[in-house]
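Practice problem: Transcriptional regulator, MerR family
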Amino acid sequence: MRISELERRTGVTRDTLRYYEKQGLIREVGRSGNNYRDYPEQAVARVSMVRQLKGLGFSLNEIRELLDAVRSDRIDCLQGAAVMARKRALVDARIRELRAVSELLKQEQARLEASAREHGLV
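Answer key — structure tokens:
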């Protein structure tokens, strides 16, 4: 598929797709007879995965390591698993932090609603 279709299907700009390709995040990109990039169908899932991992705080280098490990059954899988475990621990810690903030907000909301009722505002 051409870059315009990959852009449309993933919501990622052409410049970003080209950058991902240069960084080795998208591979197996061919060239058509008129020298246009020809992306394989699996590029859609790959770009989606890159976006998700990036959203979770993974660096592009970490994403490349993980994608390389997933792409092959090399010993590097252990390294990829270690990177994933470290990031997962960070994500889990962030979830705990967000739950604590949510609980504080819930308590403050309840206090404000009670105050509004007490003053006849609702």
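Discussion: The chain has one domain: 3-118. Students who identified this feature from the tokens alone can consider the problem solved.
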